[in-house]
Design a protein that fits this description.
7-stranded mixed beta sheet; 6 helices; alpha/beta; single chain; two-stranded antiparallel sheet
Length: 193
Amino acid sequence: MTGTPGPAATALVTCGGTSRRLGGRDKTREPLGASTVLDHLLAALPDGWPVLCVGEERPTCRPVRWAREESPGGGPVAALAAGLPQVATSTCVVVAGDMPFAGPAAADLAAALEDSPEDDAVVGTDGTGRAQPLLAAYRTGALLTALPEDPAGARLMAVLDRLRTTTLELPAPRTLDVDTPEALARARHIVGA
């Protein structure tokens, strides 16, 4: 685990989805090196941060709290709606559980939000400039307010449209999400597995 906590924040990790492109398997449970995709991410999140995972409860490499979306598999907005009421910090860094190398970006995103008091969120972008709303720091209250009344199946980008946001470009492989066999092979190559 990293020793740099950065600003006080909670990491909210979405890990309830499956991937049709990965054969319908839970991406976060895929083996990666000596652990799993999810544990690789959890081990790299800042030490002092509370971590809340939204998905099916399972053993993890560090202590986490669990929440479950109202309709399992209801999508990322439903996951946020399930997890955010349990977040006690004013900043929440949302990370997709299938992003095994995103841990070091969490503190960078939280620090960028702290330095942007007029913004509700700092959204990570990859090298192509594509926004990654599941790799972003949010003001917890603003994100809660932006959620729709019925979150199941709602579009995450529509939630983002209700917030004042800025972006932070993140280096590869921090934005790599393991949702295809090719991406999983790339992640395994990176860890030497």
